[in-house]
């Protein structure tokens, strides 16, 4: 799905960054293997060279740092909360989700999956519900996610959010939508 939040855009950019590094490393390894298979090794003095050993020790460390630093930055961005505009609590049940708007009194509802035989053409099986959650656009929203009975997973892929709902534990996630839509 297309990115609808700044967090998802950061995750996509990091994916492209890591994929490019992996592609370059794989190309280099394939090139070296093809050279080893097609040529004869005539320079045996390179096997004892200290410079080559330093290069193949330091180069992977540099590559790991190039991957780790952006990854850590994104990890800290996902946990950052600056005065949320709205708090929404999602409670997972065996066959449905309950939502509570914690900032307002007595504003809660249940959301059940629409049965397959009630689906209209163009609707997605196992993704359509009877009561959709409505959230404001361009606002920081804090999600509190828990479960009543078993483990669940609460996810909105286009917003870059996926959090486990565990009974007896309250997990927290932040989301913000930059465009209107159905996610």
From TrEMBL:
Main location: mitochondrion
Pfam families xrefs: COX2 (PF00116), COX2_TM (PF02790)
Record InterPro entries: CcO_II, CcO_II-like_C, Cupredoxin, Cyt_c_oxidase_su2_TM_dom, Cyt_c_oxidase_su2_TM_sf
Span of domain Cytochrome oxidase subunit II copper A binding: 83-183
GO molecular function, one term: cytochrome-c oxidase activity
Membrane topology: Multi-pass membrane protein
Cofactor note: Binds a copper A center.
Cofactor(s) the record lists: Cu cation
Cell compartments where the protein resides: Mitochondrion inner membrane
Function: Component of the cytochrome c oxidase, the last enzyme in the mitochondrial electron transport chain which drives oxidative phosphorylation. The respiratory chain contains 3 multisubunit complexes succinate dehydrogenase (complex II, CII), ubiquinol-cytochrome c oxidoreductase (cytochrome b-c1 complex, complex III, CIII) and cytochrome c oxidase (complex IV, CIV), that cooperate to transfer electrons derived from NADH and succinate to molecular oxygen, creating an electrochemical gradient over the inner membrane that drives transmembrane transport and the ATP synthase.
The protein, known as: Cytochrome c oxidase subunit 2
Source organism: Aotus azarai azarai
């Amino acid at each position: 799905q297309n990115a609808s939040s700044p967090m998802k855009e950061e995750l996509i950019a990091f994916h492209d960054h890591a994929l490019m590094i992996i592609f370059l490393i794989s190309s280099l390894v394939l090139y070296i293997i093809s050279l080893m298979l097609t040529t004869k090794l005539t320079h045996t003095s390179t096997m004892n060279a200290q410079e080559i050993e330093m290069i193949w020790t330091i180069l992977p460390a540099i590559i790991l740092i190039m991957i780790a630093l952006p990854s850590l930055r994104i990890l800290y961005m996902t946990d950052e909360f600056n005065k949320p505009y709205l708090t929404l609590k999602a409670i997972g049940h065996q066959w449905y989700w309950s939502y509570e708007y914690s900032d307002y009194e007595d504003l809660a509802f249940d959301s059940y999956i629409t049965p397959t035989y009630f689906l209209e053409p163009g609707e997605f099986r196992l993704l359509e519900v009877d009561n959709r959650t409505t959230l404001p656009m361009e606002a920081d929203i804090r999600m509190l996610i828990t479960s009543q009975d078993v483990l669940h997973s609460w996810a909105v892929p286009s917003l870059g959010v996926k959090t486990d709902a565990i009974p007896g534990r309250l997990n927290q996630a932040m989301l913000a939508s930059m465009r209107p839509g159905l996610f």
